[in-house]
Write a structure and sequence with these properties.
One of its GO terms (cellular component) is ATP-binding cassette (ABC) transporter complex. By secondary structure, this protein is an alpha+beta fold. The protein is built from nine helices and 22 strands. The protein folds into two domains: 230 residues, Rossmann fold, CATH 3.40.50.300; 147 residues, OB fold (Dihydrolipoamide Acetyltransferase, E2P) (Beta Barrel), CATH 2.40.50. Strand 5 and strand 6 form a beta hairpin. It is elongated, with a radius of gyration of 25 Å. The protein binds adenosine-5'-triphosphate.
Length: 389
């Protein structure tokens, strides 16, 4: 399949300060890519270069295989088959909803009949019935954003750009709109680049997520790949792996998915994201663990067991049998409860490993401070990264 949008070595500097390092990726027809990253990492700049609102400092942008920016060639925004939805809606305050929606169509040579048909379809799709004669000031935030989306779709662009379209809405409305938008974009199947700093939004909307960090792509992958195999501790942190622990790593150089780690005086198993060029046995590393993937054992037999690696069938009665496969490995670590914090549905237990490192876990019961617990977590979810020195 030919990409609808291709970026090749696109870079951008403002006053000699690099904001985007040369980056390349393709957006396929009908695909939705979310650009995820913290404030200031260059997300909006990237979107604006694609839209033609900002010129790149280097590299090329291609739409449907044809350059729109390359060397001295630069196609202005209005000549690109692209439309954008902005964070602050950017509606014309003096125009009605209908006039706002039709605004982009004035350049297109379409009949009045076709225009009315398109506006009618969008009015249905975005649930704007009864609002067409209102001005933006007479609409709620969610309704204003739906008008912004309808306006962007009216010209039937090949590519839709969305720059944090939900970030001005309150939390409840944002969640509702997120699900609504995910359904809508799925239905439209229009190639979309969607900027957000909200992981849940990216998960709901994206076919693939592009993680941008300091103007460079850290990882571009499907949501489940990003969650299951975060390429760096940084991406892991973004995915909610909030436990970052120091460990000694013994990578298995023929099979990265079967590496050993020494953590808190125990040997455990995990997945090494990248194998080192040369033997890294015994090197310092980092382990990232998601609090949700840790089962806290606070009573029963496992206390007599040594910390280490166990097979699924050995721990099935403690870890629950769903999603467990025979032969799958689990790590068990002894720990002591440092603090128990009530969070409504569950308790957050902050526990101390034998080497003094702290781990955050979630548990359905309270555990007394100073009490002994076992932490059981799958090797599959134990992410190992070698420290770059
Ligand atoms: N016109 C400009 N002149 C100088 N610096 C700029 C300009 N536009 C953006 N920058 C800088 O480029 C960097 C990236 O900005 P950008 O708006 O692309 O980030 P972002 O990831 O979209 O952030 P946010 O999530 O806060 O909107 C920031 O450090 C910003 O200050």
């Amino acid at each position: 399949m030919n990409a609808i949008l291709s970026l090749r070595e696109v870079s951008k500097s403002f006053d000699k300060t690099p904001v985007l390092h040369p980056l390349s990726f393709d957006l396929q027809p009908g695909e939705r890519i979310c650009i995820l990253g913290p404030s200031g990492c260059g997300k909006s700049t990237l979107l604006q270069i694609v839209a033609g609102l900002t010129q790149a400092s280097g590299g090329g942008v291609f739409i449907d295989g044809k350059p729109v920016e390359q060397g001295s060639l630069y196609v202005p925004p209005e000549k690109r088959p692209i439309n954008m939805v902005f964070q602050d809606y950017a509606l014309w305050p003096h125009m009605t909803v209908r006039q706002n929606m039709a605004y982009g169509l004035r350049r297109q040579k379409i009949s009045k009949q076709e225009m009315n048909a398109r506006l009618g379809r969008l009015q249905e799709l975005l649930r704007l019935n009864g609002l067409l004669d209102r001005r933006p000031s007479e609409l709620s935030g969610g309704q204003q954003q739906r008008v912004g989306i309808a306006r962007a779709l009216a010209t039937e662009p090949a590519i839709l750009l969305m720059d944090e379209p939900l970030s001005n809405l309150d939390i409840k409305l944002r969640t509702d709109m997120r699900n609504e938008l995910a359904a809508l974009l799925g239905q439209l199947s229009i190639a979309t680049l969607y900027v957000t700093h909200d992981m849940m939004e990216a998960f709901a909307i994206a076919d693939r997520i592009l993680v941008l960090r300091d103007g460079a792509i850290d990882q571009l992958a499907e949501p489940h790949q990003l969650f299951e195999r975060p390429a760096s501790p940084w991406v892991a942190q973004l995915m909610g792996y909030h436990n970052r622990l120091d460990a000694v790593v013994w990578p298995n150089e023929s099979n990265a998915a079967d590496s050993a780690v020494q953590l808190a005086e125990a040997n455990i198993a995990g997945i090494c994201s990248k194998l080192p060029a040369q033997s890294a046995a015994g090197k310092q590393g980092t382990i990232m663990l998601h609090p949700e993937s840790i089962t806290v054992l606070d009573e029963g037999e496992p206390f007599s067991w040594a910390s280490g690696v166990y097979l699924a069938e050995q721990v099935a009665s403690y870890a629950g049998t769903e999603a467990m496969k025979r032969g799958e490995r689990y790590n068990l670590l002894a720990a002591e409860v440092q603090q128990a914090i009530y969070e409504g549905v569950r308790w957050r237990l902050i526990v101390k490993l034998k080497d003094g490192q702290l781990v955050h876990t979630l548990h359905e019961r309270h555990c007394p401070e100073g009490g002994r617990v076992g932490l059981l977590f799958p090797a599959e979810r134990t992410m190992i990264y070698l420290k770059v020195v």
